[in-house]
């Protein structure tokens, strides 16, 4: 039995609602632009929350569009730039699952097909509505015989298709949940990367803040080793909004607090601290998942750098109080999480790594003692590993070895690397 993946388009595959965006384009310059647009948006939200029927919403929106084929061309260009980030970085999944990764949407093929086809999604696996046009190319309606134009359309379609396999549904709206309610799909994943509707998330089998999360929990091939939405980033003290926004945009799970509360100590992955914050040695020594600290000021006297070294925590701080560091420091933290870079770190060897990871990137933080590289490379040799590139830098009592290897290897390799004597931390990246 194959697994099938039924994926919504609006606010799921893309960051936006396409008909709302089409209204922005087609009504540009119209004297009642905002009034009409707000009414279209209202129809969208009412249907997504299950407060009116989908057909009522669709008919209302299409009648207000005042759009034609030239507007659709502009919309397609716009939508290609607004594909959800986690879908965009997981193109390989769609190539590997071309027969079973389907787009099922109450939107329209005229703009969906050109947006999703470059990802390897087959045209015959795109199910959506179609517009009706007049002789001048103006949109005058839609095919009302299409089951996707009706209330419960996705349920009706799947009943007609009679798919033999296990079906997973991914979407942000009420029509997506209806698939689960009907019993036609195994699990419903409420997708919240772009919008979260409580009426939908409350009923979901799993809330997935990104496509990475969906792939991770289902143990499917993915672009990154660990979903960033599962990494807790605490922002503590007086920190400018732009600093928090940079890390939030990177997809991390953000909490903003006045102090480092005890309940977060064991789970925090990143700490961004304001200039007056002091982290106790006891808290720092118990923060076993902490990977990096950013400090908007001189960290001396606020965070124990010796403990950071012992635990493999990379520190970035702002000794000279430069205004730009409100942006620069969180970006450095993100670059370490995403790429392994330690450039401008206060306590680690400063290493700028190639951005393109062809295979998997293994980050090995260890005590700076003789023989570590020999142990690392012996393990690679014993496992017949093809090393693409390798970097080593040391600073004081810290050694930092980065190795890019081909992705095809036995997972027992990772356990061996973690068990090397004098290992402080080990992490894997792939994109």
UniProtKB/TrEMBL annotation:
Reactions the enzyme catalyzes: O-phospho-D-serine + H2O = D-serine + phosphate; O-phospho-L-serine + H2O = L-serine + phosphate
This protein's pathway: Amino-acid biosynthesis; L-serine biosynthesis; L-serine from 3-phospho-D-glycerate: step 3/3
Record-annotated ACT domain positions: 361-431
Cofactor: Mg(2+)
InterPro entries, per the entry: ACT-like_dom_sf, ACT_dom, AHAS_small-like_ACT, HAD-like_SerB, HAD-like_sf, HAD_sf
EC number: 3.1.3.3
GO biological process, one term: L-serine biosynthetic process
Keywords: Amino-acid biosynthesis, Hydrolase, Magnesium, Metal-binding, Serine biosynthesis
Cellular component GO terms, alphabetical: cytoplasm
Keyword Magnesium: yes
Gene Ontology MF annotations: L-phosphoserine phosphatase activity; magnesium ion binding
NCBIfam families: HAD-SF-IB
PANTHER family: PHOSPHOSERINE PHOSPHATASE (PTHR43344:SF2)
Protein name: phosphoserine phosphatase
Lineage: Bacteria, Pseudomonadati, Bacteroidota, Sphingobacteriia, Sphingobacteriales
């Amino acid at each position: 039995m194959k697994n099938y993946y039924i994926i919504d388009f609006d606010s799921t595959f893309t960051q936006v609602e396409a008909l709302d965006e089409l209204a922005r384009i087609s009504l540009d310059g119209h004297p009642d632009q905002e009034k009409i647009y707000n009414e279209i948006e209202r129809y969208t939200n009412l249907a997504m929350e299950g407060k009116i029927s989908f057909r009522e919403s669709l008919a209302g929106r299409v009648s207000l569009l005042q759009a034609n084929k030239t507007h659709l061309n502009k919309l397609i260009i716009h939508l290609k730039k607004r594909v959800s980030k986690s879908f965009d970085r997981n193109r390989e999944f769609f190539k590997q699952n071309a027969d079973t990764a389907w787009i099922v949407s109450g939107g329209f093929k005229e703009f969906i097909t050109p947006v999703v086809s470059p990802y390897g999604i087959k045209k015959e696996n795109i199910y959506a509505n179609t517009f009706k046009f007049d002789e001048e190319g103006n949109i005058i309606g839609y095919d009302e015989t299409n089951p996707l134009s009706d209330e419960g359309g996705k349920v009706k379609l799947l009943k007609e298709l009679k798919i033999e396999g296990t079906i997973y549904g991914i979407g942000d709206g009420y029509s997506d949940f209806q698939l689960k309610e009907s019993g036609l799909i195994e699990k419903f994943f409420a997708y919240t990367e772009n919008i979260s509707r409580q009426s939908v998330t409350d009923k979901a089998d799993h809330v997935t803040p990104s496509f990475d999360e969906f792939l991770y929990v289902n143990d499917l091939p993915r672009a990154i080793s660990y979903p960033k939405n599962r990494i807790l980033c605490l922002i503590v003290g007086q920190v400018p909004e732009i600093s928090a926004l940079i890390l939030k945009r990177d997809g991390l799970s953000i909490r903003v607090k006045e102090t480092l509360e005890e309940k977060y100590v064991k789970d925090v992955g990143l700490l961004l601290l304001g200039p007056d914050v002091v982290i106790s040695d006891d808290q720092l020594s118990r923060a076993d998942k902490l990977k990096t600290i950013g400090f908007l000021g001189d960290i001396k006297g606020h965070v124990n750098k010796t403990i950071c070294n012992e635990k493999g925590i990379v520190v970035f701080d702002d000794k000279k109080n430069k205004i730009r560091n409100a942006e620069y420091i969180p970006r450095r933290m993100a670059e370490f999480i995403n790429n392994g870079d330690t450039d401008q770190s206060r306590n680690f060897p400063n290493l700028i790594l190639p951005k393109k990871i062809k295979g998997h990137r293994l980050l090995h933080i260890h005590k700076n003692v003789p023989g570590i590289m020999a142990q690392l490379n012996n393990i690679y040799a014993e496992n017949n590993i093809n090393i693409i590139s390798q970097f080593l830098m040391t600073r004081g009592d810290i050694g930092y070895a980065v190795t890019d290897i081909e992705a095809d290897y036995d997972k027992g390799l990772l356990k061996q690397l973690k068990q090397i004597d004098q290992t402080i931390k080990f992490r894997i990246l792939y994109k």
